[in-house]
User: What shape does this take?
Amino acid sequence: MSGFLKREGRLLLAAAALIVLMNVPYGRYVLYPFTIFSTWIHEMCHGLAAIVLGGSIREIEIFSDGSGLAYTARPTGRIPTALVASAGYVGTAVIGGGMLLVRNRRHAGTVGLALLGGAMVLSTLLWVRNLFGVVATPLLGVGLIVATRASAEWAGRLYTFLAVTCCLNAITSIRVLFGSNLVVAGKPAGSSDAQTVADALFLPAPVWAASWMLLAFLLVGGALYSSREPPRRS
Assistant: This one.
């Protein structure tokens, strides 16, 4: 246990700092680039879910306050509606867990940053349409690509922090997640993801919100456990 805490201490402290900073006044300014990244992942997961179900992404908007919208075409029905609505938080947590799982592999940080940066630039060309998103998304993507020129250690640290940001997306958005209405760019934008799923599948929105938060915790814990160093034989 002591070896685990020593090896993963920085990661655990980063996760704790992320949760605190994103839920206190002015703390979000420190993590602003990571907030935009997390929003982009979240909206892309909505869109990719629609594509998997046979639909498409019409456009994606990323706003300066860290909110976003994904406009999709998807099959009608309760199940497709619920799947696309839940894909934002669930998909982001799954991606973050997968990133954490491979973070200790050789060149994981450098390769991961390059792939994420390239995907941000490509998604801007294909789907991002509002002014802030068109500027911020590729700029952040290029920044990730440039970061691959840093040492493998620092690239790995940045990659790991991005992974934690993804995993804890549902937790750091707790105030939004448990609300019934969605506010985007300071304006009401319909029902929240949890409320949309609740309307489609009957269970109350807080149940879905709590399940997404639990999933995020489980994925972080599972990724840390699975990537631990095996015990040494005497």
Q: What stands out?
A: Residues 2-226 form one domain. The chain has a mean pLDDT of 84. The CA atoms of residues 46 and 84 lie 5 Å apart.
